[in-house]
Structure prediction request, 864 residues.
Amino acid sequence: MLHADRRIGRQALMLVLDEDARAEVIQKQGWIGCVGKVGSMDAHKVVAAIETAAKREGVIGEDRYREGHALYHAILEALQGVTRGSLQLGSVLRTVGLRFAVLRGNPYENTEEGDWLAVALYGTIGAPVKGLEHEAIGLGINHI
Amino acid sequence: MLHADRRIGRQALMLVLDEDARAEVIQKQGWIGCVGKVGSMDAHKVVAAIETAAKREGVIGEDRYREGHALYHAILEALQGVTRGSLQLGSVLRTVGLRFAVLRGNPYENTEEGDWLAVALYGTIGAPVKGLEHEAIGLGINHI
Amino acid sequence: MLHADRRIGRQALMLVLDEDARAEVIQKQGWIGCVGKVGSMDAHKVVAAIETAAKREGVIGEDRYREGHALYHAILEALQGVTRGSLQLGSVLRTVGLRFAVLRGNPYENTEEGDWLAVALYGTIGAPVKGLEHEAIGLGINHI
Amino acid sequence: MLHADRRIGRQALMLVLDEDARAEVIQKQGWIGCVGKVGSMDAHKVVAAIETAAKREGVIGEDRYREGHALYHAILEALQGVTRGSLQLGSVLRTVGLRFAVLRGNPYENTEEGDWLAVALYGTIGAPVKGLEHEAIGLGINHI
Amino acid sequence: MLHADRRIGRQALMLVLDEDARAEVIQKQGWIGCVGKVGSMDAHKVVAAIETAAKREGVIGEDRYREGHALYHAILEALQGVTRGSLQLGSVLRTVGLRFAVLRGNPYENTEEGDWLAVALYGTIGAPVKGLEHEAIGLGINHI
Amino acid sequence: MLHADRRIGRQALMLVLDEDARAEVIQKQGWIGCVGKVGSMDAHKVVAAIETAAKREGVIGEDRYREGHALYHAILEALQGVTRGSLQLGSVLRTVGLRFAVLRGNPYENTEEGDWLAVALYGTIGAPVKGLEHEAIGLGINHI
Prediction:
């Protein structure tokens, strides 16, 4: 069962929705995490920005593919929520401005569940013209 | 431009992430909205539950198709975030337990932008066995 | 090159958009074809209705899988235009009322191109309530 | 209910299928509309061509995002019909040559339904070699 | 790097393509695995059949969600190869007859990569009439 | 019915999974075929590499669009198995290294079924860093 106080997805979402809550949340739970921002018309740059931050902050290791694989799929799942139907940005004439958060820890009551990853994205998506945009959210969860 | 204090998507997300904030948020902004819960292996039951609540609470009118059309597409977009790739639940052996919120109002600085709809979903998705599930989020935004 | 007067897709579309033009068009070109109607919340019933009509009218043979395979993929492609993103009807709480046409013939200047199939769909898609719907179109083209 | 004589999608489709019918149709109904052509291996150029024409001809206003948002989603839905499964052109080695039409008006019997948009696309899709292509259609409908 | 002799996906594929090679392959590598057959018009029955076999044969544990989560996503990825565009069977009037294999082990040279899962599917997909079908393959790989 | 000894998809898969079996298989069945390799972050280069090889080896004719059309769709279907959800490579920061095979012949007992095409792909997909990748498979079957 998910532990009510350790819902890792909810915490990652709070990190992208509320900038002030950040530091204490991560420390309180004993979780590892990072936050950052990225704006682009290229989905691959969003992926790269999150991967770079997660490796730099030690959320995932750089020497094992299995951790990169877990993060990659969590990022793509979060991007599905942002793009809602097609993982495309500039190729269909739209751009994103996103705040991202990655959290790593065990959200389950059973300690044997080990670590999971949550990737949260929040920001705007729209035409490549300032103001012609609306909000978007995404969350990807994966075991690691 | 989106008005920093009237980000309708963020407010709808807070309504599904934090149960206590609900009533005051909706009233403070002069927005119309509703919240509710739905659990199902049928995506069409999730759609129906949200549509029924939104009509009952007066978020959309029952006599004009254009408002139902706006809500329907916002719901499907929110479900894309929850399902991340394929709008299917029981047909691929998974189920959801979701809290939903619908907000209606103008999130832009320009008053001529008129009303927009935000549909937020938060809860769990997973196997039809209690505990074999993780969190999921979704947000659909549409003009109305 | 496509022959300007034998654009098979355009002719199939005219058959679903304009009921009066039907018979003469099919005969004039020496094409084989059929038209019909189907309304359903089940995509598989739309597929079955078109397959049944096409076999009954001799547009495709019943004894060779290759012709059924060509028709099946043309139908699914036409349904993509109708559903615009997800080949689902009732499972996302929507229904269709469609007129369909299937034409078989060679639309190319080169006679060696042989027969091709065009499946056209036109009608409405929307909530399972009369009037809460809008128009939709679809066209699938395949070699046969 | 859709008004039998004001089916906006059907009219937009006739505009792309039959070049001669154009002007009188738009004027007869009191509708606003535009037609044009675009050929590209980039989906974003198709989107841009239609958006530019619609703004230039006054079909949508340039100062309100809600109208651009309505048009954008109608265009993407029409492109789903053309691409049938994946909103990609050059990235999967194919190109389109399309005639497009955008119409704005009320297709419903109820005058309170207000304006709707229809985006119709018709032309060819295929390999980036002249003649190695077949026909394609698409229609997107949205409230505005 | 993938170890040339321990390509887990290739081995799982050989298990579904060649019935005779099965037992020795699994034992030779020190891998855990299972094979089986399933035929259905319901994708959820394919998922359930593979999950049941994998748990019964001890390929994944029953008490930890993280292993079920890894297997579920590997199954869905394999089904993408079989269905090629839409994870639907009976709802678009088609059925599958599949042989499946699940293998668990480390395919990488680096022993720290730990266990991975490979789910391979091979068989036929087509109309619900014997013979009106062609072959299909799928492979899903996930860390566990 | 598929002829047990002439399963064209299985043979194409064996050609990409086992390099030694190649030549004799193609000759034994009286089939036409080709094999090759391609690595790229651009899906269109994978498509082009297979099309070029198939034309050069005489698997499909260069003068008839219907054969190119059959091959194109078989390639895209095979790529669905490799990409599992979205036909994108570099645009979502991943690359492939693939061995491909194309076979042409009649896999059915009924000689009237004529020629069919099988396109098989096998190799790796992953981050654009050597070693950060796992295996992938794909198979597309089409009548020709």
Notes: Residues 65-83 of chain F form the longest helix (19 residues). Residues 106 and 114 of chain F are 5 Å apart (CA to CA).
